[in-house]
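Input record (one chain):
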Amino acid sequence: MYTLFLKRILDLLLSIAGFLLMSPLFLLIMILLTISNEGKPFFFQRRPGKKGKVFKIVKFKTMNDKKDVNGNLRPDAERLTKVGKFVRKTSIDELPQLLNVISGEMSLIGPRPLLIEYLPIYTNEESRRHDVKPGITGWAQINGRNTISWKQKFIYDVWYVDNISFLLDVKIFFMTILKVIRAKDINTQGQATTEPFNGNN
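The corresponding structure, as predicted from the sequence alone:
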């Protein structure tokens, strides 16, 4: 009952309310990022959703597009702007994904939508993370986020798929708020972004 009906209703109501409530902050961050990123406040990328169906995720853009003398993008740590660093540390960069939730492509709670390139290298067990809609936050995010291995993340993701419930989602929701307040587990040690998944890590 919850997964078939109530979860979507709650997603819709909470995401619309959240977007309206935070619209002043949304507008302010959009303006600041437009300035710091030379007119590009948003980051769009194709990601796999439920059953692997591809959609376009939207986030606030935390890195600029500056390139080196050879025309290649500079390392992530060098392109992370001051505004972007704050936005990422406070997880505000995830705020635009409320639009993905409203449109039905995502849920508030679920396994994070990862890169399309990872699809061919998942094991059958790991692929089960796509049996539900991806979420803005999830079980793996409140249990280490970017400080745990990919293998452990997928174990958490599949565990969520097998144990999804209203009470579990409530727990994840409030623990996520606590994590955001504490600004914990944002980046992998010594890196600006998470190490890519290669099928072995």
